[in-house]
Amino acid sequence: MKKHNFYAGPSILSEYTIKNTADAVLNFAGTGLSLMEISHRSKEFTAVIEEAKALVKELLEIPAGYDVLFLGGGASMQFCMVPYNLLNKKAAYLETGTWASNAIKEAKLFGEVDVVASSKEANFSYIPKGYTVPDDADYFHFTSNNTIYGTEMRFDPDVKVPLVADMSSDIFSRPIDVSKYDVIYAGAQKNLAPAGVTIVIVKEDALGHVDRAIPTMLDYRTHVKKGSMFNTPPCLPIYAALQTLKYYKDAGGIKEMEKRDLEKAAILYDAIDTSKLFVGTAAPEDRSIMNVCFVMKEEYKDLEGEFIEFATSQGMVGIKGHRSVGGFRASIYNAMPKSSVEALIATMKEFEKKH
Questions:
Q1: Which of 67, 138, 156, 166 is catalytic?
Q2: Is 2 a catalytic residue?
């Protein structure tokens, strides 16, 4: 039976990425060596990291004056690297979910943090609006997509201070005006590669303005200067990332990805909204097109376990909601084919007929 992978991360990768990475694990670039045992300083691997960097710049139309870094530590490492490098006195943060809260907690170690707005009181079911970002903030940080709660900001905010964004779960799903940002970071395990590498897009002019000493490994300038090769980079995830970037380019680029993502999300949300059993949990105007979160209507709550079992028997994998919120979550990242979303909808309708 075909499996439909709705895991939130690590998550589905394109068949192109999986096949090419698997081939390179056996024989990398005709060297007769595995990708897992090659020197990161070999000319073959240096070419991989350079091509990956160039493709990120091309696909996201990154202007001059920015560097693309491939770092370890996950997006969670960026929660402290950002304030270490950018926070002098005060930073502004928008609290829209668990990962935003974690970023706020780390930033408080480095200076004053102004949480300009939060949707915590409503279990992060919406994105706050109408808040004011103080003009004297060193930067404004937001999390563009909230995987646990299924909300998303699909736009680049207009603020008077430098922008920083955690785009871990929706990077490459829409065009971005990179010139508005000082730092964009994203863990790879949603729309790019297996876990183990984090992509960081950093404006060179933004660096070197804090008074504190920064440990070598946590200083963006170290990695800019050394081309992400200060220490041994995670070679396999970077190689897989390159395959995904090639796949995006061949498929028609980021606008095409966005078009497909919007289509998939629209049919799934429509199925939820017209259902007698299921109901969405995120505010309609803030719904994520990456993570579709839904639950059973109150009177059918006791059927949740039965639906998970039924969906699993139909080949659906990873649709259980995050342990902190329950219910269901269908993560429909770029690599998810529309046919899998249609299969989930058919499963939901079949279950509804039974009940």
A1: 166
A2: no
- Structure token pair of residue 245: 């970037």
Active site residue 190: yes
Six-digit token string for 344: 């989930």
Tens-binned pLDDT, residue by residue, of the chain (355 aa):
899 999 999 999 999 999 999 999 999 999 999 999 999 999 999 999 999 999 999 999 999 999 999 999 999 999 999 999 999 999 999 999 999 999 999 999 999 999 999 999 999 999 999 999 999 999 999 999 999 999 999 999 999 999 999 999 999 999 999 999 999 999 999 999 999 999 999 999 999 999 999 999 999 999 999 999 999 999 999 999 999 999 999 999 999 999 999 999 999 999 999 999 999 999 999 999 999 999 999 999 999 999 999 999 999 999 999 888 889 999 999 999 999 999 999 999 999 999 9
Same domain for 285 and 215? no
291-296 and 112-118 strand pairing = unpaired
Which of the following is catalytic: 53, 190, 203, 320? 190
Structure tokens at 287: 């719904």
> Would residue 99 show up in a list of annotated catalytic residues for this protein?
yes
Q: Are 182 and 80 members of one domain?
A: yes
pTM of structure: 0.97
Residues 131 and 220 grouped into a single domain: yes
Of 99, 170, 203, 261, the active-site residue reads 99
Structural domain boundaries, residue 173 = 15-251
- The string of DSSP letters for 185-207 reads EEESTTTTSSTT-EEEEEEGGGS
